[in-house]
């Protein structure tokens, strides 16, 4: 068994950020475990054609590791993946990371106040467990009758088969979310025919994407203040959107006008325009950005299918109106398990229940997106109620890193062996979030989205300005926690929150 003070599961933006901050603050006894072959997480795994970020480059990077070499205002997948790995090399995190290591189970051992972590390459025992698995790591495959009978090729957007040549093929794309609107224009260029199966038309706004000029590159590299001011300006502009999302959806009317204009510029056919025009308020689902999506839908080799899928057979897809469409390839762009990640099934708390079992009753629930009652010495990165609908998740990650470092400093200085958020504090915290969300466009915008869990609760999003989350996580608030300083003699804990 490998004994460490701290084990970090995941080597994406949040896991790498945690490792860097631990190292910078003197926490040297830690290990990073990841099932992949290098750093990057989501940006390592999602290599589909057209993969790119929908947050401007300067904001979608660590504040402590700015990148003056971004080639475009909106970075593409390969560039983000390379950036993450450069940062890892700069801070020498690779030497502490075990790649190609699949974490199969993590369980709290009450007798020793340790986490026992089983992997396919051995067992680890850690005083603190940092779960940085991320919400976009487990593909969500659609439950469609007969899909296993299909004799052609099927792959999820996050598991792209680059060895298969799509040129001249008949392809169906299921889904019209963030990944799909990037994939569809790329496929439309090369396939013989493309069927786009749309359940709900999304709001797609113009994308202000362009290459940076030589002068801009020089300024970013030689006058760091220029990049800092650019980052600050982008951040401020995006924060203005959050007020409309949370408090006054009418303020998002300009977004709806921009979305309608985006459709009008590219699509002349009135029937197709009607199909792709959203019927819910802008912001209710994630706002998407693209200049190429609607032109791709207007191409002669593309059909938008709004009838639901009844079943799949050996040669194609049958929609609910009885139409059979032959295809060679089915591309599944149906997102990820966010509120019901399989990863939750492999983290077992003090009472023997997994996170999945605890959250199966009333949905995800935590405290400041970081800790969960019933799971001592566990710190989650990008946990419940930390997702965003308007700006960069890296900002939220860095806010959590402030909380994490102060948490570990407090545990170390006070010789705390077992620490767990109090049930009443967690309940109070989530009640306040729910109250804030009640006026939001996500509740009142007239759509169903992955922001909501199976109970209809929004347990993924942070409501409001992100600087309020940063303020809330600036310091670790020990009074919200129940602690024990003696190993093996933990005092009774508060009743669990379901």
TrEMBL record:
Gene3D superfamilies: FAD/NAD(P)-binding domain. Its cofactor is FAD. Keywords: FAD, Flavoprotein, Monooxygenase, NADP, Oxidoreductase. It comes from the Bacteria. GO terms for molecular function: monooxygenase activity. Pfam families: Pyr_redox_3. InterPro entries: FAD-bind_Monooxygenase_sf, FAD/NAD-bd_sf. Transmembrane segments: none annotated. Belongs to the FAD-binding monooxygenase family. PANTHER family: FAD_NAD(P)-BINDING DOMAIN-CONTAINING PROTEIN-RELATED, L-ORNITHINE N(5)-MONOOXYGENASE-RELATED. This is Cyclohexanone monooxygenase.
């Amino acid at each position: 068994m490998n004994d460490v003070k701290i084990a970090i599961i995941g080597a994406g933006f949040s896991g790498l950020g945690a490792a860097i901050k631990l190292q910078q603050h003197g926490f040297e006894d830690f290990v990073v475990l990841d099932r992949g072959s290098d750093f990057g997480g989501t940006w390592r795994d999602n290599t589909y054609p057209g993969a790119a970020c929908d947050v401007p480059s300067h904001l979608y990077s660590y504040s402590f590791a700015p990148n003056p070499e971004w080639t475009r205002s909106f970075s593409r997948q390969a560039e983000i993946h390379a950036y993450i790995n450069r940062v890892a090399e700069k801070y020498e995190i690779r030497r502490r990371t075990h790649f190609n290591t699949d974490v199969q189970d993590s369980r709290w051992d009450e007798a020793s106040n340790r986490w026992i972590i089983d992997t396919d390459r051995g067992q680890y025992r850690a005083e603190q467990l940092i779960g940085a698995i991320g919400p976009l790591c487990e593909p969500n495959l659609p439950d469609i009758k007969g899909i296993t009978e299909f004799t052609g090729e099927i792959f999820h957007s996050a598991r792209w088969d680059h060895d298969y040549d799509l040129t001249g093929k008949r392809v169906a794309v299921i889904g019209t979310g963030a990944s799909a609107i990037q994939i569809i224009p790329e496929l439309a260029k090369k396939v013989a025919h493309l069927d786009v199966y749309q359940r709900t038309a999304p709001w797609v706004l113009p994308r202000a994407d362009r290459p940076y000029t030589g002068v801009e590159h020089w300024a970013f590299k030689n006058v760091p203040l220029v990049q800092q001011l650019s980052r600050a300006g982008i951040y401020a502009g995006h924060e203005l959107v959050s007020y409309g999302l949370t408090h006054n959806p009418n303020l998002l009317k300009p977004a709806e006008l921009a979305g309608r204009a985006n459709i009008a510029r590219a699509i002349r056919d009135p029937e197709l325009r009607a199909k792709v025009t959203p019927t819910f308020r802008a912001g209710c689902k994630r706002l998407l950005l693209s200049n190429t999506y609607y032109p791709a839908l207007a191409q002669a080799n593309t059909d938008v299918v709004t009838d639901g899928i009844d079943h799949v057979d050996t040669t194609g897809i049958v929609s609910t109106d009885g139409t059979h469409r032959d295809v060679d390839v089915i591309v599944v762009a149906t997102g990820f398990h966010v509120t019901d990640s399989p990863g939750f099934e492999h983290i077992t708390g003090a009472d023997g229940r997994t996170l999945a079992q605890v959250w199966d009753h009333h949905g995800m629930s935590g405290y400041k997106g970081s800790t969960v009652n019933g799971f001592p010495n566990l710190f989650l990165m990008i946990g419940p109620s930390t997702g965003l609908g308007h700006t960069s998740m890296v900002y939220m990650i860095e806010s959590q890193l402030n909380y994490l470092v102060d948490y570990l400093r407090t545990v170390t200085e006070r010789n705390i062996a077992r620490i767990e958020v109090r049930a009443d504090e967690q309940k109070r915290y989530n009640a306040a979030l729910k109250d804030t969300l009640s006026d939001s466009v996500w509740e009142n915008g007239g759509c169903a989205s992955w922001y909501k869990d199976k109970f209809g609760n929004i347990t993924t999003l942070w409501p409001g300005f992100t600087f309020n989350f940063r303020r809330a996580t600036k310091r670790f608030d020990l009074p919200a926690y129940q602690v024990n300083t003696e190993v093996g003699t933990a005092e009774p804990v508060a009743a669990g929150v379901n």
